[in-house]
Design goal:
The chain has four helices and seven strands, in the order αβααββββββα. It is of the alpha+beta class. α2 runs antiparallel to α3.
């Protein structure tokens, strides 16, 4: 990791350029790394158990209605099962989204991974990064550009992530040793 000494190249009474200010940040070691993901309250095994129970109940009820002569109801029970299955599959697919946030080697990196696996990296100088919450949205700003993080997070989770990133940026700017946090919630791994 590169480091520079404070004050080197600084001219008394002259406004410093942005590049000179960037070089003034004394960075310590380590890195900050968190992965944000949507919360998933139902595991794969829980999904299988739930769908098995729904199929069993729907089939039994459908057979009952067929026995009393209301055979079209059987098809609607089947349709209900298919719609429920589709909704859960959509939810699980959406749950594969990830946002990887890393501060290392003077860079603030955001890697967005979509549900289909496509990734979109964003990288900028960490010294100028700021993190804030505005109108219920978590933002990282850098030299006039803004990047929204954690669209899938709740308000409390956004506040927790904001504080973790803000603390990491403070540590980075003061030259401390960056450390990745231990996750307190299910949305950080």
């Amino acid at each position: 990791m590169q480091s520079s000494n404070r004050g080197e190249g600084a001219k008394s009474g002259v406004t410093e350029s942005m590049d000179e200010k960037e070089n003034m940040a004394t960075t310590g070691g380590g890195s900050f790394h968190i992965v944000l993901h949507p919360s998933q309250s139902l595991s794969r095994s829980g999904f299988i158990i739930l769908m098995s129970a729904v199929i069993t109940v729907s089939f039994a009820a459908g057979v009952f209605f067929m026995a009393i002569g209301a055979w079209p109801v059987f098809g609607f029970f089947g349709l209900d099962v298919l719609l429920l299955y589709g909704a859960f599959k959509f939810s699980f697919r959406n749950g594969r989204r990830r946002e990887v946030i890393e501060i290392r080697n003077d860079k603030f990196q955001i890697l967005r991974i979509a549900a289909n696996g496509q990734s979109m990296p964003t990288e900028f100088q960490a010294y100028w990064a700021r993190v804030l919450i505005a109108k219920g949205q978590l933002w990282v700003t850098n030299r006039g550009s803004s990047y929204e993080l954690g669209q899938f997070l709740g308000e409390e989770e956004k506040e927790e992530v904001r504080e973790l990133i803000a603390q990491a940026l403070r540590t980075y700017r003061t030259g401390g040793n960056l450390q990745s946090p231990s996750p307190n919630t299910s949305i950080i791994s």
